C-alpha cells in the first residue's frame, strides 16, 4: 500500500514536518510534492491545491482513495492503518495524556504562529518584524513553560523516559520536534526547558527524524 | 463510572461546550465546576486550577484516576471508554474526514479567537474593539468558507445527511455548534453558509445540545 502515498507539503511547514516524521517512523515510502507557501503568492492558494484542501493549508496526504488534511488526523489515520511502530500509545492514561500534550502544541502554540497569521498581523495590525517575533516568542514560551511542567510531572509519576512520554517516539515527539525547530529559527531561548531540549536531542539522533528535517527536503530554500 | 466525572469549564468557553455536548450525547452524568475566565484576573490562573492543567486553559475532565485537558483528547477518551452513542465515526474514510473537519474548526479557527489571544492583541498590538471583531470575523469566515465547501463535497460524494458527515451527531458537530454560537455572538453574517446553518439548526433541536448551551449552564453570566 505504501507505494501509493503522496504527501503535499513544504519543507518549512511544521505540520508537514510532523507527517514526514510519522511516515519515516513507520518506514512508509512516499512521494513528496512541494507546495511553495510563499512563491507566486503562495501555491497553496492555487486552484489545483484548493481541490485537495479547500482550507488552502498544508499538508495533504493522498493514499489510494484517501485524501486527507490536518496533520493530527493524518497521523491517527497512519497509526490505525499501518500499525507498525505505534505512534499513539495504547495504555490509558498515557494514551490520552499523549494526545492532550500533542494538542497542547498543535492547537495552542502552532496555529498562532502560522504564516497566514503573521501575514495578517503585518497587513492589518501594522505589526513590524520585531512585533511579530515578540508574538511568536510569547506563544512558544506560554506553551513550552506548561509543557515542561507537564513532562516533569509525567516523570515524577511514571519514571524517566527517553522521549516525551515513553521510551519510543510518540505523537508528542512528532509535534514537539517541529515546534522546537521553529522556536530555534526565531531565536527563542530554550534554557528554561531542559526536558524538552533533552527529548528533542534524543529524537534528532533517530534516522526517521533526521530524514524529516526541513533542510533535508528537496524543496529546501527553493 | 459516570458518577465520578467532573468537568472544569466555563459557560462561554467553546472547548468546554464541546465536552458538555459529548457527555450529554453519551448520557454521562457529571459534576460541573465553573472556572470563571474573567473574574479575579481569570480563575484559570489560580494555583488550584494550575495543578489541574499547567496550561491554565479550560476544560479539564476528571474521571476517577484520569485527569485530562484538551477538548479533542477528552472527546476521544470518552468515545473509546464509553462506546455508547459513538462520536468519532468508525468506517474509513469518513472517520478521518470527520477528524480533519473537527480539527479544521478546533485548530484553525478557535485558537485564534481565544480570550488570551484577544487580550494580547489589545495589550500588545493596540487593537481596539473593532480591530478585534474584524480579527474574529476574518478567521471565522476563512474557516467557514472552506468548511461549507467541504460539507458540499461530502454530500456530493456520500449523499445528504442530517448532521455534518453522518445521520447521527459526530465530533464535527460537537466542534461546529460552539463555533457557530461564537460567530453569532460576534455578529458574523452566516448567509453564505447554508449547510453549516442547517446542520447547526438540526443539532440544536437535540436535548444533548440544548442542555449544553452556554445560557443553560449554572455559571451563565455569573
Automatic annotation (TrEMBL), chains A, B:
<dbReference type="InterPro" id="IPR010987">
    <property type="entry name" value="Glutathione-S-Trfase_C-like"/>
</dbReference>
<dbReference type="InterPro" id="IPR034330">
    <property type="entry name" value="GST_Zeta_C"/>
</dbReference>
<dbReference type="InterPro" id="IPR005955">
    <property type="entry name" value="GST_Zeta"/>
</dbReference>
<dbReference type="InterPro" id="IPR036282">
    <property type="entry name" value="Glutathione-S-Trfase_C_sf"/>
</dbReference>
<dbReference type="Pfam" id="PF13417">
    <property type="entry name" value="GST_N_3"/>
</dbReference>
<feature type="domain" description="GST C-terminal">
    <location>
        <begin position="91"/>
        <end position="222"/>
    </location>
</feature>
<dbReference type="InterPro" id="IPR036249">
    <property type="entry name" value="Thioredoxin-like_sf"/>
</dbReference>
<dbReference type="GO" id="GO:0016034">
    <property type="term" value="F:maleylacetoacetate isomerase activity"/>
</dbReference>
<dbReference type="InterPro" id="IPR034333">
    <property type="entry name" value="GST_Zeta_N"/>
</dbReference>
<comment type="similarity">
    <text>Belongs to the GST superfamily. Zeta family.</text>
</comment>
<protein>
    <submittedName>
        <fullName>Maleylacetoacetate isomerase</fullName>
        <ecNumber>5.2.1.2</ecNumber>
    </submittedName>
</protein>
<keyword id="KW-0413">Isomerase</keyword>
<dbReference type="InterPro" id="IPR004045">
    <property type="entry name" value="Glutathione_S-Trfase_N"/>
</dbReference>
<feature type="domain" description="GST N-terminal">
    <location>
        <begin position="3"/>
        <end position="86"/>
    </location>
</feature>
<dbReference type="InterPro" id="IPR040079">
    <property type="entry name" value="Glutathione_S-Trfase"/>
</dbReference>
Amino acid at each position: 500500500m505504501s507505494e501509493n502515498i503522496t504527501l503535499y507539503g513544504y519543507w518549512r511547514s511544521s505540520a508537514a514536518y510532523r507527517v514526514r516524521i510519522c511516515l519515516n517512523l513507520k518506514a512508509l515510502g512516499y512521494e513528496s510534492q512541494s507546495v511553495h507557501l510563499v512563491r507566486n503568492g503562495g501555491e497553496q492558494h492555487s486552484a489545483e491545491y484548493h481541490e485537495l484542501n479547500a482550507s488552502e493549508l498544508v499538508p495533504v496526504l493522498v493514499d489510494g482513495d484517501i485524501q486527507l488534511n490536518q496533520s493530527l488526523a493524518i497521523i491517527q489515520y497512519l497509526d490505525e492503518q499501518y500499525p507498525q511502530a505505534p505512534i499513539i500509545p495504547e495504555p490509558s492514561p498515557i494514551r490520552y495524556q499523549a494526545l492532550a500534550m500533542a494538542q497542547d502544541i498543535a492547537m495552542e502554540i502552532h496555529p498562532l504562529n502560522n504564516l497566514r497569521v503573521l501575514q495578517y498581523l503585518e497587513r492589518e495590525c501594522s505589526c513590524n518584524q520585531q512585533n511579530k517575533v515578540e508574538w511568536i516568542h510569547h506563544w512558544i514560551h506560554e506553551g513550552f513553560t506548561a509543557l515542561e511542567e507537564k513532562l516533569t510531572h509525567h516523570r515524577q509519576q511514571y519514571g524517566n523516559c527517553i522521549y516525551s512520554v515513553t521510551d519510543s517516539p510518540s505523537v508528542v515527539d512528532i509535534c514537539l520536534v517541529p515546534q522546537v525547530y521553529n522556536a530555534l529559527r526565531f531565536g527563542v531561548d530554550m534554557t528554561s526547558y531542559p526536558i524538552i531540549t533533552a527529548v528533542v536531542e534524543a529524537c534528532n539522533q533517530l534516522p526517521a527524524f533526521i530524514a524529516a528535517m526541513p533542510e533535508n527536503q528537496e524543496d529546501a530554500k527553493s
